């Protein structure tokens, strides 16, 4: 078997597992959209669909991880190829965790529906933040497909906006609870939802960092924005 043929097989395997990651990303995006719809419409059936998809997301994450382990064991890749496989593994894990956060939102929405106590609270801001987080994840997946470091850098900056939305929402909930202690229980439910949404943004940010790791070989976690921009020049 020629070296060229071995390389072609390896490229085919990489393309295959990358396609699976994109498929997983699509499933997770669907979970987020359904969770946001469930929150916006107080729709228990939409929440149920999120939880049903979670089973398939978990199964696919395990399948991709096994496939990656097999490729590494058989091909013994080096340098950038190994970085790519490691980053794919970490991206898959982050996507699965995004699914977990969407599942948390769905479960909490069902709880809120059953209690009937959150309709007067500021859930509109929460839905806006959820749309932002979903959009950030979509950008991260698109950037990952192209290994686009410029887009990755933009995602890192955009995550700060979601963090600011979260901080503002927390302050608003605190105000509600101080003005009317009867809203404390429902406000804490919404705070739980807000934290789950913020975590979705964090996972999108993680994927953006993996893109930079693949292309530049630099671990930019816990690194200032100025240092990241310098690394990409």
From TrEMBL:
**Stored Pfam families:** PhoU
Q: Which residues form a coiled coil?
A: none
The UniProt entry, under InterPro entries, shows: PhoU, PhoU-like_sf, PhoU_dom
Question: Which locations, inside or outside the cell, does it occupy?
Answer: Cytoplasm
Q: Which UniProt keywords apply?
A: Cytoplasm, Phosphate transport, Transport
Source superkingdom: Bacteria
Give the residue spans that cross the bilayer: none
Show where the PhoU domain sits. Answer: 22-108, 128-210
Q: Which SUPFAM superfamilies match?
A: PhoU-like (SSF109755)
> Function, please?
Plays a role in the regulation of phosphate uptake.
PANTHER family given in the database record: PHOSPHATE-SPECIFIC TRANSPORT SYSTEM ACCESSORY PROTEIN PHOU
Subunit comment: Homodimer.
Family affiliation: Belongs to the PhoU family.
Name of the molecule in the record: Phosphate-specific transport system accessory protein PhoU
Q: Which organism is it from?
A: Variovorax ginsengisoli
